[in-house]
Design a protein that fits this description.
With 272 residues, this protein is an alpha/beta fold. The chain folds into two domains: 154 residues, Rossmann fold; 110 residues, Hypothetical Protein, Haloacid Dehalogenase-like Hydrolase, Chain: A, domain 2 (2-Layer Sandwich). 33% of the residues lie in helices and 23% in strands. The chain has ten helices and 14 strands. α2 runs parallel beside α10.
């Protein structure tokens, strides 16, 4: 099985899968190799960039909170935070003056409640505008009504702040993601403890695809790919990844230079 991140890895900087990438995906299909995308996007957001007949078999979406079989759009697995977990995180983030969003359970997790401190946070404000039809403000002091797929706190590019905040949630999974909007801000994504792209890969391998982890190839570009890259024996990052990742994994050309295709070719050579 080949697993790839989507934005900044499989897609170019214009969010398009170019011909060499598509040819590689078709070739994998012809060889009977399972093709999987692992992305932080929700299903709603995925449908903005991938066609119904895109040459992929499975998508691990929302950073591992859900898994869908692409050909028939059947959701095979989904996870969520319980109401009491959501309330605890929400109360903590408000206390610390953090802008955040609480996303509804799958498949409606493009809808969310948000809390704004009204401090300058252009990345947060931009996302609110993008999803204006699907979001509404959270009224502080009122108990959160139900569980959630995830909570996203939008932080400045301050790793110390991220580390300090994430340490407050030891019973939950906290994932660092570089904002796909401005490429600078840190998104602190909070999930159930075992949720990650690696969790999605393990679930697919055991429950659906029936393959061994040592037969899985992964390609990524950001910090939210770390669990996935650490899990697989054949792990690659594109050259547009942060230096911290390029120091840890095999580097292939950037997403604008068909790095995905290079990674697949190299992995297949080593697997034979």
């Amino acid at each position: 099985m080949v697993v790839t991140d989507l934005d900044g890895t499989l897609l170019n900087s214009d969010a398009i899968a170019e011909k060499p990438v598509l040819e590689t995906l078709f070739s994998l299909g012809e060889m009977g190799i399972v093709r999987t995308i692992a992305t932080g996007r929700s299903l709603y957001s995925i449908n903005k960039v991938l066609s119904d007949d895109f040459p992929i078999d499975y998508i691990i979406f929302s950073s591992g909170a859900g898994v869908i079989r692409w050909k028939d759009k059947q959701i095979l697995n989904s996870r969520l935070l319980y109401q009491h977990e959501v309330q605890s995180v929400v109360d903590d983030l408000i206390t610390h003056g953090i802008d955040f969003m609480v996303h509804e359970p799958i498949p409606h997790n493009h809808c969310f409640l948000y809390h704004s401190t009204n401090n300058e946070n252009s990345d947060f404000d931009r996302r609110i505008e993008t999803y204006r039809a699907f979001c509404r403000p959270y009224i502080s002091g009122i108990d959160f009504p139900n569980g959630a797929t995830q909570i996203i706190a939008v932080l400045p590019n301050d790793t110390e702040l991220f580390t300090r905040l994430s340490s407050k949630f030891p019973t939950l999974k906290v994932i660092r993601t570089t904002s796909p909007s401005d490429g600078i801000s840190i998104w602190m994504e909070i999930f159930p403890l075992d949720v990650s792209k690696a969790y999605g890969i393990n679930w697919l391998s055991n429950e659906e695809v029936k393959c061994n982890i040592n037969e899985v190839v992964s390609i990524g570009n950001d910090f939210n790919d770390l669990d996935m890259l650490d899990l697989t024996e054949f792990s690659y990052v594109v050259s547009n990844a942060p230096n911290e990742l390029k120091n840890l994994y095999k580097v292939v050309p950037s997403n604008n230079e068909y790095g995905f295709a290079f990674a697949v070719k190299d992995a297949l050579t080593n697997l034979r």
